[in-house]
Amino acid sequence: LDAGRETEIHRQFDELVHVYSGLALSQDAPGRWVVRGDLHFSATFEAVTIEDTFVILLLLPRDYPSSPPMIQETGGRIPRDFHTDPNGNLCLGAPVAVRARFLQNPRLLPFVNDLVVSFLFSFCYFQEHGRMPFGELSHGGKGILEYYQDLFHVKDHLATLGLLKILADDSYRGHFACPCGSGANLRRCHGPQLRGLMPVQSNERFLQDIKAVLCSLSEENIKKLNKNMLPKELLRRLETFSPTNDRSKAKYI
Ligand SMILES: [Zn+2]
Ligand SMILES: [Zn+2]
Fold first, then answer.
1. What does the pLDDT read at residue 168?
2. Which one in 97, 105, 121, 208 has a CA-CA gap of 20 to 30 Å to 248?
3. What is the value of pTM for the model shown?
4. Is 243 a residue whose pLDDT tops 90?
5. What integer pLDDT is reported at residue 44 of this predicted model?
6. Distance 173 CA to ligand 1 centre (A)
7. What is the Cα 163 distance to its own chain's centre?
8. Which residues lie closer than 8 Å to 195 by C-beta, 6 or more apart?
9. Gap from CA of 197 to ligand 2 centroid (Å)
10. Which ligand is nearest to the CA of 89?
11. In this structure, which ligand is nearest to the CA of 142?
12. Rounded distance, CA 166 to CA 164, Å?
C-alpha cells in the first residue's frame, strides 16, 4: 500500500513540476512527503493580470490523496493574520469546500492550479486594490458558518447547527423532520444535500466544523442553544472536559 502511495505521489509530482518547475519533492521523515520551492504563476481576472512568485511548502497528509495537502507560504510575505490558521497553514476556503473541490480531482496539479493559485492571486490583488477579487468568507468558525448557511440557504445558525449535527452524529433518517424548520421531512428537504456531503468528510470533521462554529458565536447566540442541538459526541467530550484546559469551550458548556 505504501509503495503504491509513493508511486502515485511521484506520478502526481511529475505532472506538477512540468508546469511549476521551481518545486521539488522530498520526504521530511519516512512517509512524510512535502513539496517545496518557488511557485511562479501568472493569472488574470477581470483584465487584471498578476504574475508573481511565492515560496511555498505543500504538506501531504498520511492519508493523501484521500485528504488534500496543507500549504504554507514560507517566504514571509503573507502576514499571519491573512487567512492563516494557528499552525501556519493557509486557509484556502471552508475546509469542507476545499476537500470537496480537491476530491473531484485529487491530484497536486489541479490543487495548485485551482486552489493555491487563486489564493495567491487574491492575496496579491488584495494588497494592490484593498479588496478581495472573488468575495471573501470570514476567517475561522465564522467563515465556516457563513459557508454552510449559504450552501443550505438558511439564515439561522440554529438551523445550520441542526443540519451539521446530523452529519456529525451520523443520524440521518429520511422520515425525520428537517431541522431547518420547513416542516418537511429530511427526505423532501435538506436530505439530498446532506447525503451529498456525507462522502466528502468524516463525522469527526463535521464535529470539528461545529466546534469551530460554536467558538465563533456571540454570547447571545450561544444562549439560544440547548443541549439537544449539540452532537452527542461533543456532549460526551464536554462531560470529561476541564474548563482550565480550554477557556473557549467553557463558554458553551
Ligand atoms: Zn481564512
Ligand atoms: Zn430543510
1. 97
2. 97
3. 0.88
4. no
5. 92
6. 33
7. 18
8. 172
9. 14
10. 1
11. 1
12. 5
Q: Comparing 247 with 126, which gets the higher pLDDT?
A: 126
Residue type, 91: C
Residue whose C-alpha cell reads 458553551 in the numeric block: 252
User: Which residues fall within 8 angstroms of residue 204, CB to CB, at 6 or more apart?
Assistant: none
Give the C-alpha separation, 98 to 106, whole Å.
11
Q: Cα 146–61–9 angle (5° rounding)?
A: 120
Number of Cβ within 10 Å of residue 10's Cβ equals 12
Residue labelled with grid coordinates 480537491: 102
Distance 119 CA to ligand 1 centre (A): 10
- Please, which pLDDT band fits residue 135 given cuts at 50, 70 and 90? confident
| Nearest bound ligand to the CA of residue 147 | 1
CA of 179 to the centre of ligand 2 (A): 6
Poorest-pLDDT segment among 5-19, 78-92, 238-252:
238-252
